[in-house]
Design goal:
Blueprint lengths: L2 H19 L4 E2 L4 E2 L2 E7 L6 H17 L4 E6 H10 L3 H9 L4 E7 L3 E4 L13 E11 L8 E10 L2 H13 L1
Antiparallel strand pairs: 1-3, 2-3, 3-8, 4-5, 5-6, 7-8
Helix pairs in contact: 1-2, 3-4
């Protein structure tokens, strides 16, 4: 299993957890990065440390359900209609910028849907060790005239030992 796929899948689980806790939040993007992953959210009130703990707990619940990541392809127009119906403005903007006639979406759980080219793990239960680390502001597309989103950073490893080593290295640095 690729560490990038593991981390990207974990970012989707985090997005699902956030949407279950705050259904009004708008989704941005959620890639894997060198030491973990992040996801950008459109939320009026700032995320707090208590919110991160709540999100982690919800993520553990989603992981425990071992829900499959289900990939579907849709025509762009169909996907635009879907995400407009979900009130996901940022996703609609992303879909419109995709040059292909079809886009891929992933579904997990009781209706969580996200635009993504993937790939992902087979199921949420394959996530063994993760930790949410911090929240920062990030302009949509990195352009300061665009809305400010909240970026939650996290890290994810194949096992708890590797995660603990990484967290210790962060603390020592």
């Amino acid at each position: 299993m690729s560490l990038d796929i593991l981390r990207h899948s974990c970012s989707h689980i985090m997005a699902q957890a956030v949407k279950e806790l705050w259904p009004e939040v708008k989704l941005g993007i959620g890639p894997s990065i060198e030491d973990g992953f992040y996801y950008d959210f459109g939320k009026k009130e700032p995320f707090t440390d208590e919110d991160l703990a709540r999100i982690e707990e919800k993520m553990r619940q989603i992981i425990a359900k071992d829900e499959p990541f289900i990939r579907e392809e849709q025509a762009k127009e169909q996907a635009i209609k879907l995400f407009k119906g979900l009130n996901e403005d940022y996703k609609v903007e992303l879909i419109k910028a995709i040059p292909d006639e079809k886009v891929s979406i992933y579904k997990t759980g009781e209706g969580f849907t996200d635009l993504c080219r993937g790939p992902h793990l087979a199921s949420t239960g394959q996530i063994a060790a993760f930790k949410l680390l911090s929240v920062a502001g990030a302009y949509w597309h990195g352009i300061e005239t665009n809305p400010m989103l909240q970026r939650i950073y996290g890290s994810c490893f194949e096992n708890k030992q590797k995660l603990d080593e990484h967290l210790k290295n962060i603390e020592e640095a």
